[in-house]
Design goal:
There is one protein chain. The chain is elongated. By secondary structure, it is α+β, with helices and mostly antiparallel strands. The strands form 2 sheets. Strands 5-4-3-6 form a 4-stranded mixed beta sheet, sandwiched between helices. The longest helix is centred in the middle third of the chain and has 41 residues. The protein is built from 15 helices and 6 strands.
């Protein structure tokens, strides 16, 4: 039962799945929206360019019918004439065709935006599979497309019939009207028919656009297994990630340990915490933490300090405070300046005693640390 639930596509597509679908050319498209846009563009183009286009075509027709005997008897001249007339006709129609071409390219982008995909051009033998194609035709989606096409045809037919019935008397009288008046009457009937059919297509497009969006989302639904697989691919294998994190921690620890021999002093708890501080009065504004650790790491810091003759001093409260309130590479808090200054002063006196034979410094006494900075609230 669990396997069956995992294999069912019940989950909405993730952003990554939607992006992959766009890369493959799978986006929501409404043919009805494109048809409506083309209809409106054609009607608008005829309304805007109709007078000029009618005049050009009338002149072209008049010129084409004026053929002298010499031209009519010469096949080469008739061919050249046909070529010229065809070219002139195409040039006359070019503005309207350009508008239709622009709308045909722009209308599909209204739903899902511009998308160019090489994957959509890839040859796929499954598209030529007659069994799969027959299955799509007989599916509920194929039935829905068929019903939509039938409904569209029926609606347009009803509207066209209603317009024709409404204008039945003016249409019957066209043969008795003068040419100019007859052309004007025909234009009015054609214009009203166009507006009514365009309104029908607008209704169809308003229904089809939400349906296509829903259908696109339904096609891209994912199963729970696919969601888990995508999550695994996005986040990576947990075991590999754990190994990478472990390696990063090891590298950070090695870098930290490499700074211990350069430290000015190591302050210890003495067993649980160890903090290595570095201070150069000419280059640093305040002492800086170069290494810190607890338990085994603290023991390693103390061991390295002893090996490289770095002073190791015990001050449990100060070690705890620095460990809790300063990260590696950061300066110590200002409230600990006085306490650390006592430590460093003792270290410098001890260094001068070893190098130049100065007087032996007095043993380091207890270091006062603000209770608010000591995790244990103690002062030594």
């Amino acid at each position: 039962m669990a396997d069956d639930n995992d294999s069912e596509r019940t989950e909405s597509a993730t952003p990554r799945r939607l992006e992959q679908a766009r890369e493959e050319g799978h986006v929501a498209r409404s043919q009805e929206l494109t048809t409506f846009a083309m209809m409106m563009a054609g009607g608008g183009g005829l309304w805007w360019l109709g007078g000029q286009l009618f005049e050009q075509l009338r002149n072209l027709l008049r010129h084409g019918l004026q053929i002298d005997v010499a031209t009519a008897s010469d096949a080469s001249q008739m061919t050249a004439r046909l070529h010229d007339l065809a070219l002139a006709g195409m040039l006359s129609m070019a503005p309207l065709l350009a508008v239709l071409l622009l709308v045909a390219a722009a209308a599909p982008q209204l739903l899902s935006g511009w998308n160019f995909s090489v994957g959509a051009l890839r040859f796929d033998l499954q598209r030529l599979d007659p069994v799969a194609g027959f299955g799509r035709v007989l599916s509920w989606r194929g039935a829905a497309e068929l019903l939509k096409a039938l409904a569209k045809s029926a609606l347009i037919a009803v509207i066209a019939a209603a317009v024709m019935w409404h204008y039945r008397e003016p249409l019957q009288q066209l043969v008795m009207l003068p040419l100019a008046e007859g052309v004007a009457q025909t234009a009015r009937v054609a214009g009203m028919s166009f507006l009514m059919i365009a309104a029908a297509l607008a209704i169809i497009a308003a229904v089809d656009v939400p349906f296509q969006l829903w259908k696109h989302g339904d096609d891209l639904k994912m199963s729970r297994q696919e969601l888990r697989q995508e999550h695994k691919e996005s986040d990576g294998n947990p075991e590999i990630k754990a190994a990478i994190r472990k390696q990063q921690r090891e590298m950070a620890r090695r870098r930290m340990m490499a700074e211990v021999p350069k430290a000015s002093v190591i302050v210890t708890n003495p067993t649980h915490y160890a903090v290595a501080l570095s201070y150069e009065d000419r280059t640093m504004r305040a002492p800086r933490v170069v290494a810190k650790g607890a338990d085994l790491v603290a023991a390693k810091i103390r061991e390295l300090g002893v090996q490289h003759n770095v002073p190791v001093l015990e001050s449990p409260a100060l070690a705890r405070a620095i460990y809790a309130h300063a990260e590696i590479g950061e300066e110590i808090p200002e409230t600990l300046y006085t306490a650390v200054a006592e430590i460093l002063a003792y270290v410098f006196q001890l260094r001068r005693h070893r190098e130049f034979g100065d007087a032996t410094p007095q043993p380091l006494g207890p270091i006062a640390v603000p209770a608010a900075l000591d995790p244990q609230g103690a002062t030594q």
